[in-house]
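Work package 3, deliverable 3.1, input record:
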Amino acid sequence: MRNDVREHRERLSLSQAALGDALGVSRQTVNSIETGKYDPSLPLAFAIANYFETTIEEIFHVD
Amino acid sequence: MSTKPTSTIAKVSGILAGAAAITLVAILGYATDNDSFAKGAIIGGGTTLVVIAVLWARTGGRDTASRIVAGQGDERERHIFREALADAGLAMFIAGLGCAIWALFDAPAIGAAGVVLWTGLLAWGISMILRVRRG
């Protein structure tokens, strides 16, 4: 699965650690999600979408 | 998403409970004339407690192992932990089959048990390291 988390994060000039703190996950987890190594659970995907004030479909894309 | 940090009281209680368990096993070992078993329990159990204490002390800790031990792992880290346990279980099952065959050749029971336990421990450690590095 592909995602635009990095683009959304950089648009807000946030570091991975800051986004991780906001979402309640580690910096490493944010990095793993951005690089596509880890697909987040549905609750975390919703939390990410809510944080960026958008929808899951706008951030996560099936290859 | 993340779990609450483990309180200091819970950490100290955990260490004390672990120490009590090791002491009980050692007492049972000595009482049944299995001195080397008792020493193994003390050395192995003591080492494990020290490692856990060090990881707890590092909390605030930035690495995955510290956060998991401190109860602060997020969903990805708990997933890695569970997968590593599954790998260890599979490795111990295979080691158990090997030891069952070894038993046909009069393998010592304590040796076979040691092989199974160490296989599980090593498999868990290696699996954790590889899975953390892979992201």
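Chain B touches chain A through eleven residues (CB under 8 Å).
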